[in-house]
Design a protein that fits this description.
Layout (H helix, E strand, L loop, with lengths): L1 H14 L4 E2 L2 E2 L11 E5 L1 H9 L5 H9 L2 E6 L1
Antiparallel strand pairs: 1-2, 3-4
Length: 74
């Protein structure tokens, strides 16, 4: 039961990652940026990546897929 609770909490926190803003989808650290958008580091996604660093997979997903989010137009 304890492992199930921990797994549920992990899934809830990971589902809380920001994947999209009103300006478009978040991108990974090495992805190409749209030149017409302004991007900023997502503090929440960075926190989730650091918090789950011992689990290996969540930080990889966050950094490769949802690290920088668009916040406006240039």
């Amino acid at each position: 039961m304890k492992k199930l609770t921990i797994l549920f909490i992990l899934l809830v926190l990971l589902s809380g990652c920001t994947t999209r803003t009103e300006y478009g989808n978040c991108i990974g650290a090495l992805d190409d940026k749209n030149p017409s958008l302004v991007y900023k580091l997502s503090a929440w996604n960075l926190f989730v990546g650091i918090f789950f660093v011992s689990l290996i997979v969540p930080p990889i997903i966050v950094i490769s897929d949802e690290f920088i989010c668009p916040v406006g137009y240039k």
